[in-house]
């Protein structure tokens, strides 16, 4: 039964991580809608991964919660 409990706890942790990732991705997409269109060749559609890379770069470029950016 201990193995079963550990497996269940692991599945619950993974589910929480997935939900958090989807939530964060949704927030990032909402924020991205309010910003300038993604950079790239005019008229070219970006892949999902390319969009995620741009969102990550943009997020890292912003200063985190009033702190000076670490370099």
Structural overview:
The chain has helices at 2-34, 48-61. By secondary structure, the protein is mostly helical. It has a domain at 1-31 and 47-61. The longest helix has 33 residues, at 2-34. The protein is elongated. The model has no long low-confidence stretch (mean pLDDT 78).
Distinctive features:
71 residues; mainly alpha; 0% strand; elongated
Oligomer: single chain
Secondary-structure element sequence? HH
Overall shape: it is: elongated
The parts where pLDDT drops under 50 for at least 5 residues are none
Report the mean per-residue pLDDT as an integer.
78
Cα-to-Cα separation, first versus last residue: 49 Å
Instruction: Quickly give the structural class.
Output: mainly alpha
Q: What summary fits the major beta sheet?
A: none
Task: Classify the helix fraction into a percent range.
Answer: 55-70%
GO biological process, one term: cytoplasmic microtubule organization
GO molecular function: microtubule binding
InterPro entries: Hook_C (IPR008636)
Protein name: HOOK2 protein
Entry summary:
The protein has 71 residues and is mainly α. The protein has helices at 2-34, 48-61.
Can you lay out the helices and strands and say which pair or pack?
Blueprint lengths: L1 H33 L13 H14 L10
């Amino acid at each position: 039964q201990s193995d079963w409990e550990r497996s269940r706890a692991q599945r619950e942790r993974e589910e929480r991580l997935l939900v958090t990732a989807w939530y964060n991705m949704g927030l990032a997409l909402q924020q991205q809608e309010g910003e300038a269109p993604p950079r790239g060749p005019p008229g070219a559609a970006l892949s999902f991964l390319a969009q995620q890379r741009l969102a990550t770069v943009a997020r890292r470029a912003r200063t985190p919660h009033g702190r000076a950016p670490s370099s």
